[in-house]
Write a structure and sequence with these properties.
The structure holds 2 protein chains of 2 kinds. Chain A is mostly helical. Chain A is about 70% helix and about 0% strand. Chain A has a single domain, classed as Cytochrome c oxidase, subunit III, four-helix bundle (Four Helix Bundle (Hemerythrin (Met), subunit A), Up-down Bundle). The chains are: A mainly alpha, B alpha/beta. The interface between A and B is medium-sized, with 31 and 29 residues.
């Protein structure tokens, strides 16, 4: 009978003992994201500062209050995300599950509110340059929230299936970093597009 | 300094910082445009100054790494050297320390690399160069009657020592560098940091390659 040599395996890959490959991947990904958002912000500053377009162009109004509430919802979701990870680090599985579910629901609320806001806002991407930039920036961010929600959904399902432990929780840590990054980008978008 | 991409905890703290930063600018900007600009400049200057100081701050002392004892009366000598690995003073010192019949020698050459290549894990060329230097050094040691083992280590000499200590252990460590003023390792305090960090006797050998070739 043929036997399987369980000791046989490919040689251990050489990698730096200081830069984890997964962390490096996240670093490169976020670097590319910063460049992507940077290009959209360049258009924003060109339209608003260089071209001197009134912001928002009359008679359009931006729903500052609703977006402010949405900002609070998104920032709160970062707290619940942090709680989820801290919980599993202490071996608290209930805290992990509750934190992930709450984060997902808060993120979903943010996205649905933004879609509702789009339907009532009174202008479209092809109204003028202001409309294009507004929908471009907020839509780009919304797409990122959607990706974040997908990652959170996967992490939540895995948590309910008994994955993750005090030692092994990289599957929560990486979506967590991404989620906080998405929140930081929203803070920048909200401040520049809605407030200033 | 904190790296917001390294862990979720640091990303969370970065988010809190961003909330405070942008909230202050927004509040001041709503009150008065110029006040917003002033707050932006002041806060940005504070952040840059803090970042600059964090970069300059001395690293915290590291707890001395316990080195496991070797079997019986065996004497383990760990040698860390890179470009100076084939230098005559180093070969002489190793021969002198390894004159004991029970001595075992491990030579580690850190794979020195550029920061960009290191970040991209592009270490093949650096490892090949280090391996080449190591082979020549081991051959020279063999000529002097010292039978040593060798391995290529991490680009950071302290990390390379730590890695070797975990597998080889050591009763003595020999660190070889260029002379003062030409040695990057001395500039970064590698010998002092190693003495602080590793609880074994550390010998420092200076090899002046230009004097040897001249």
């Amino acid at each position: 009978m043929a036997t399987v040599d369980h000791a046989a395996h490919p040689p251990v890959a050489h990698q730096s003992s200081r830069v984890d490959a997964r962390t490096l991947g996240m670093f490169l990904f976020i670097a590319s994201e910063i460049m992507l958002f940077g290009s959209f912000f360049t258009i924003y500053f060109f339209v608003r500062v260089a071209a001197g377009t009134p912001w928002p162009t009359p008679p359009n109004q931006l729903p500052v209050f609703v977006a402010g509430m949405n900002t609070i919802i998104l920032v709160t979701s970062s707290f619940t995300m942090h709680w989820a990870l801290q919980s599993i680090k202490r071996g608290n599985r209930s805290g992990l599950k509750a934190g992930l579910v709450l984060t997902f629901l808060l993120g979903l609320t943010f996205l649905l509110t933004q879609i509702l806001e789009y339907s009532r806002i009174g202008f479209t991407p092809h109204t003028d340059a202001f409309g294009s930039v507004f929908f471009g920036l907020t839509g780009l961010h919304g797409a990122h929230v959607f990706v974040g929600l997908t990652l959170l959904a996967a992490a939540t399902i895995r948590a309910f299936r008994g994955h993750y432990s005090e030692e092994h929780h990289h599957g929560v840590e990486i979506p967590g970093i991404y989620w906080h990054f998405v929140d930081v980008m929203w803070i920048v978008v909200y401040t520049t597009v809605y407030i200033l | 300094m904190p790296n917001p991409l390294r862990s979720e905890g640091e990303a969370f703290r970065f988010l809190l910082g961003a909330v405070v930063y942008f909230a202050a600018i927004a509040i001041a900007g709503v009150i008065n445009e110029w006040a917003g600009l002033v707050v932006f400049i002041v806060l940005t200057a504070v952040v840059v100054a803090w970042w600059w100081r964090a970069q300059k701050r001395e690293p915290r002392p590291i707890e001395a790494l316990a080195v496991p004892p070797g079997p019986g009366d065996e004497r383990r000598i760990l040698v860390i050297a890179n470009e100076t690995v084939g230098g005559a003073p180093l070969l002489e010192r190793i021969s002198e320390l390894a004159s004991d019949a029970n001595a075992r020698v491990l030579v580690v050459t850190p794979a020195l690399n550029s920061p960009l290549r290191h970040l991209a894990s592009d270490e093949d060329a650096a490892r090949a160069a280090a391996q080449d230097r190591l082979d020549r050094s081991l051959a020279a040691l063999a000529t002097n009657g010292v039978h040593a083992r060798g391995q290529v280590g991490d680009g950071d000499p302290l990390q390379a020592i730590e890695d070797a200590l975990r597998t080889f252990g050591a009763d003595e460590i020999v660190i070889s560098t260029h002379p003062e003023g030409r040695s990057n390792w001395l500039e970064h305090g590698v010998v002092e940091n190693a003495r602080e960090r590793f609880a074994v006797p550390i010998h420092h050998v200076v090899v002046d390659l230009s004097a040897e070739s001249g």
